[in-house]
Amino acid sequence: MVSCDCLCWSSDLSETEFCSFEPEPFSLPSPIHIWPQGEGYAEGKICLGEIDVMKITTFDVIWNSKKLGKKGADGVAFYKPARIPEGYFCLGHYCQSNNRPLRGYLLVARELLVVSESNLGSPLSDPLDYTLMWNTDSNHDTSCCYVWLPIPPEGYKSMGFVVTDCREKPGLEVVKCVRSDLTEVCETEDMIFESYSKNSKKSSCLRVWNMRPWQRGMWDCGVSVGTFFCTSTSHSSGTELDIIACLKNIDSKQIISAMPNQSQVHSLIRQYGPRVFFHPDEIYMPSSVQWFFESGTRICSLKNNNLIDWDGANLPEGGANDGEYWIDLPEEEEKRDVVKKGNLESAKLYIHVKPALGGTFTDIAMWIFCPFNGPSTIKASLVNIEMSKVGEHVGDWEHFSLRISNFNGELWSMYVSQHSGGGWVDASQLEFIEGENRPLVYSSKSGHACFPHTGCYIQGTTKFGIGLRNDAAKSKYYIDSNIRYEIVAAEYLGDGAVKEPHWLQYMRQWGPTVQYNTWVEIDKIMSHFPTFIRFSVDVLFELFPTEIYGEEGPTGPKEKDNWFGDERC
What we know:
By secondary structure, the protein is mostly beta strands. It folds into 2 domains: 47-255, no CATH class; 262-512 and 554-563, no CATH class. It has 6 helices and 39 strands. The strands form 10 sheets. Strands 31-30-29-26-25-37 form a 6-stranded mixed β-sheet, covered by helices on one side. Strand 5 (59-67) and strand 6 form a beta hairpin. The longest helix has 11 residues, at 262-272. It is globular. The model is unreliable at 1-20, 67-72 and 199-203 (pLDDT under 50).
């Protein structure tokens, strides 16, 4: 945690110039759809219990800088919400870098006419004062920046910083603090901006971070306000904060109050469902789970193996991945080869719909199944080595997730999974089908990792120039997820609203575990390096991707941490 007394500093801005450059606001390619009527979804405001909130996406710029000394570095800008509706109050200001379109939000809040049973006081309160956290200390009177931390009354928390362009403290009415029991702990996410001052007597810098709730599972209550965190101290992402908090949706019923009903979910999928492209040289295509089961696949154990029913009804359900069971291809070699290649005509996206960030967003996770993950191509120095075994395994589950605002139904970002990792991509950075709000997703050759753009992506360590190639390209092979999909789970809709398929309850591996002769695989790669390069055994095992040591079938979607939790990033 970071304490207040170590944050305040000033800069002489020896590396910073003031500029009029402002990024253009981003908007989706086409107008947002008018959603079917029903309940509290996309009504513009969301009730969190004793307060309700609205999302502001139009801003007035307060101060903008452009950092010098680093080619291509565009600096940062601070914004305040514009056109706040009557009765609502600002909770803090917004910050983003100048190197992308203006794309962000701030929540504004108002008190509801609810009597607190605990007599803890009003949900919102003015701050007592402000502490100056950072300032430019510039002689340019028209280009000054001051960042202030609101000092909350006892029993309240600040939601964000306030920025001004003059030395006078902001008025106490500019921002509101929130009663502590209506807040949750937050953490820093990615760094927005970092600037050093060379001429200062003390070595100092400004670091600005995005924030998000500390706990972010399906039923967790933390709500992102959209504000920023700044510090001049050493700090890393994922660090818990104590001087700034996020909002809390205080009732589990409130978490689902703004979620879409089934009709609205289908409308969202039709509006935003991506087109998924497969590489032009792809051999191992996706298929439906049913086609996979009907093609002679088996459920195996140490004692026996049996053909799988077409709907997976004879798969063992529940429990954990204890290694007792696994799925395998047909025994006949000819049938195995057919199943490995998949069946694009039958393939579909399997969809899990769930609340995110305290019910202020809907996550639509789209899972795609491939019967077989093909061998990898390893980049070793300047040479590409096509492996015969490395990277292979039976059964391959990859996914991407659409994060959609429950305030108005706008696509906000998309998560793309890449083997055991992945990351969020803002909607402003996505590629769309022309004239539509449907993003493009590119599945990498053989391994099926998801990427938002074409290209060659290297996985694993780049030390000594070694890594797995992920090649993504557009081709005639694709699936339109807005048409070919099946909703397999949406727990928030209640029991029986969505019938989960039998195979979703199978928590074991979708492929066998096979060990390779490690040294044969390593020698094949090392033969491409000069003889004067020598590696110890420890360095070798650290150097190469884990896929080189064998194959292991993945577990299914519901066994993954992100089924009930947030995406890994």
